[in-house]
Specification:
The chain has 9 helices and 9 strands. The protein has 276 residues and is of the alpha/beta class. The chain has one domain (40-275): 3-Layer(aba) Sandwich (Rossmann fold). The strands form 2 sheets. Strands 2-1-3-4-8-9 form a 6-stranded parallel β-sheet, sandwiched between helices. Strand 5 (153-158) and strand 6 form a beta hairpin. Helix 2 (58-66) crosses helix 9 and helix 3 (81-92) packs across helix 4 (107-114). The N and C termini lie far apart (60 Å).
Length: 276
């Protein structure tokens, strides 16, 4: 048995405790770990280079997604910096929230131009990539010791231009696909990459780059010390000029394929810096 008065007193007492607890929650400042007050996770956008496609990022994508990061790998048109950067810039405008923009090889030309003026791009990450300054052209930079020489290129004319494919076999000064472009990749996989390569437009090599986004956006650079497509000295020079945080790995040009763990670590370092 219980009396009506004792029940009322217990209900009132419980109500007072709950009211005090709710008031404390609503008025106390959120801690640093409060999910509601953390910056949102950025979307990682991956840009491939010449003679490749978005599948070159597969190992990196898998690792980022396992950690819960949103990842996008749009196609790079490979028509030239002006066309490609305009397309990527339009694509980036469809991505909500902060962005960490990652580029490999020629993709560095595209990202450097596409990110200029986009305040949502919080970090640039260059993976064995070109970091051009204003007015520089791909042809002149590639001439600074690259294993890809004129003899490497198979020309395919089409209405409006010329596409360039990499030969599989050695030819003249070119040591062949697996020793130049895909050094460090096992031969069977290199053969698949050669068979599925996307061509670079000849127009790429003469178009000047515009104002570089790395002047205003923090940048990171992963350099494969055995890269023969963009030689070590050139990558060091471009990365230092851009003020990039540099990481080196003993690998060839295709680090997204051969060294996805190292590539992912550099991307996550950039992500962490944008959320600090």
């Amino acid at each position: 048995m219980f009396t009506g008065k004792s029940t009322v007193r217990r209900v009132l007492s419980l109500g007072s405790v709950l009211a005090v607890a709710l008031l404390a929650l609503s008025t106390s400042p959120a801690g640093a770990g409060s999910p509601a007050h953390q910056r949102p996770r950025p979307t990682v956008v991956l840009v491939h280079g010449d003679w490749a496609d978005a599948s070159s990022w597969t190992g990196v994508i898998e690792r980022l997604q396992r950690k819960g990061y949103p990842v996008l790998a749009p196609p790079n048109l490979l028509r030239g910096p002006a066309t490609d950067a305009a397309y990527l810039a339009a694509y980036l405008r469809t991505v909500p929230g902060p962005i960490v923009l990652v580029a490999h090889s020629y993709g560095g030309f595209v990202a450097t131009n596409a990110a200029t003026g986009n305040t949502d791009v919080k970090a640039l990450v260059y993976i064995d990539a070109f970091l051009p300054d204003e007015g520089e052209v791909l042809g002149a930079l590639a001439a600074e010791g690259s294993c890809i020489t004129d003899s490497a290129l198979q020309q395919v004319p089409y209405d409006g231009g010329v596409d360039l494919y990499l030969r599989w076999e050695a030819n003249g000064a070119y040591p062949g696909f697996s020793r130049c472009f895909a050094n460090g990749v096992d031969r069977d996989r290199a053969a698949v990459l050669a068979a599925t390569q996307r061509p670079a437009a000849y127009a790429q090599f003469g178009e000047p780059s515009g104002p570089p986004a790395w002047r205003t956006i923090p940048s990171w650079s992963l350099i494969g010390t055995q890269d023969q497509v963009i030689p070590l000295a050139l990558q060091e020079k471009m990365s230092q000029r851009a003020g990039a945080r540099i990481t080196r790995v003993k690998a060839g040009h295709l680090t997204p394929v051969t060294s996805p763990d190292e590539v992912t670590r550099v991307i996550l370092a950039a992500v962490d810096a944008t959320r600090g």
